[in-house]
Amino acid sequence: MRSVRSRAALGATAVVALALGAAGLAVLLVLRANLTDQAGLQAEVAAREVAGQLALGVPYGELDTGDEEEHPVQITGEHGRVAAVSKDLEAISGTGTDRVEPSSAAGAGDDDDRDADDEPGRGEVDTDEPDFTNGTATVDGDRADYRFAAVEVTDPAGRTLTVHAGAPLAAEQRAVDSVRSAMLAGLPVVLLVVAGTTWLVTRRALRPVEGIRREMAAITASEDLRRRVPEPGSRDEIARLARTTNETLAALEESVGRQRRFVADASHELRSPIASLRTQLEVAAAHPHLLDLPGAVADTVRLQSLAADLLLLARLDAGERPGATRLDLGALVREEVSQRAGDRVPVTVSVRGGHEVAGSRGQLARVLGNLLDNAQRHAVRSVSVTVDADAGGVLVAVTDDGAGVPEAERDRIFERFVRLDEARARDDGGAGLGLAIARDVAVRHGGRLTVTGPPGGGARFELRLPAAP
User: Fold this and answer.
1) What one-character-per-residue DSSP string does 384-453 give?
2) pLDDT in the model for residue 464
3) CA-CA distances (angstroms) from residue 448 to 311, 352, 442?
4) How far apart are the C-alpha atoms of 221 and 242, rounded to whole Å?
5) What is the dihedral of CA 179, 181, 182, 183, to 10 degrees?
6) Residue at a domain's end among 176, 200, 217
7) Which of 23, 169, 185, 261 could form a disulfide with 145 if both were Cys (CB 3.0 to 4.6 A apart)?
8) How many CB atoms lie within 10 A of CB 359?
9) Distance between CA 456 and CA 400 in Å, rounded?
10) Which residues form the domain of 285?
11) In which element (H, E) is residue 199 found?
12) How far apart are CA 138 and CA 90, in angstroms?
């Protein structure tokens, strides 16, 4: 049973069946108990009426036992001897003795114990709660179930007698049987209604899920990430699922679009140095004396640098985590600047104290190198680097005296393959990956990279990294 609707309908039906079964059983038990108590009350009333007559000294033969079929009566004395029974009582059970023939010993001395001149006395009926038992009685050939009440009484002669009077249980049995039959007849109908209702409600509730599934299947088949799944107007879990799915599709579309733009831009950037290098090699093959060796080397270096940038970006996009090596950022800055003795603009370094960070030495060195390359590309006369503490972290500021970055472009320059018009016009302009790599590495290290415009003009790139714990 793979359908959610089928499982929900079956589960709901089973739960309702168990609940109705338990409730029906409880109703039957309560009904039986109430009717049995009612029959016991009737039997007690009949027994006390007969016991009252015995207490007044009414002889056994003159006792009024009422309707014998409705209330059979058995009177027993000491040692369970039968003193009297109601008319037409042929058999009895559940009263302690099944004899229905009066014993001569039990009734002897009714009049002998009193003198003829004595005033008739008065006995006493026990007022305690009577004992109740269930049994059977046969009256005039008809056998039935009865609820018997046993009431003790002391007659005027001082003898203790027990009056057993019964009340029929036929009405109780008929009522219980009727209720049981009605429940058994109605239970399948109720379960069928519950199963059908659950099926329809579940089907209606899961209809948006089926719509989401079909749309996702269509998106998978068409590879069109611009499509979105339908969002129901409700505010339930399915609506939230649809919204989350659309958000995921939007993020996936953006990611795929970014990847496609990256591949297109990378192809474009690689095409130029490869084409230039190939042209020079073809010319050299035909005319060796025309070989531009410095140009070929420069194109090869540019191609190698671009490939390294693309490889680093691929590793960053794949989620490569930086190392946890502790290193002195001030020392790293001095080392990186010392290796750039051939830069066209001198670089001044100012390090205030020691500042340790945790991360990848190679990646952080790459960030510093990219920032210095960018500053050298745009500076006019000076480039400065400062390292200082900054609110629990380390701040590295690279400042140049160039034209600066327009405020509207300060976020855009960190996108991949983005170069401002001025940078594109320069022959030594990069591929537009340096600042993108620098920001990605900064973020991977728990920091951030921003650009501002210092008061004296130019551009100020600020790299903030958390201090090593």
Assistant:
1) EEEEEEETTEEEEEEEE-SS---GGGTTGGGSTT---HHHHHSTT---S-HHHHHHHHHHHTT-EEEEE-
2) 93
3) 22, 20, 5
4) 19
5) 90
6) 176
7) 169
8) 25
9) 10
10) 237-317
11) helix 170-222
12) 5
230 in a domain, yes or no? Answer: no
Which token pair is 276? 């230039």
- Cα 394 to Cα 15, 347, 387, 391, distances in angstroms: 64, 20, 7, 8
Residues 352 and 313 in one domain: no
Evaluate whether 460 touches 453 at the Cβ level (below 8 Å).
yes
Span 151-203, pLDDT tens digits: 999 989 888 999 999 999 988 888 888 998 998 898 899 989 988 888 888 88
Q: Are residues 288 and 307 in the same domain?
A: yes
Clarify whether residues 20 and 146 are in a common domain: yes
Give the 3-state secondary structure percentages of the chain, helix then strand then coil, rounded to 5. Answer: 50, 20, 30
Q: Does 204 fall in a domain?
A: no
Domain membership of residue 247 (yes or no) is: yes
Among 317, 341, 373, the domain-final residue is 317
User: CA 32, CA 180: separation in Å to the nearest integer?
Assistant: 11
Tell me what pLDDT residue 120 has: 53
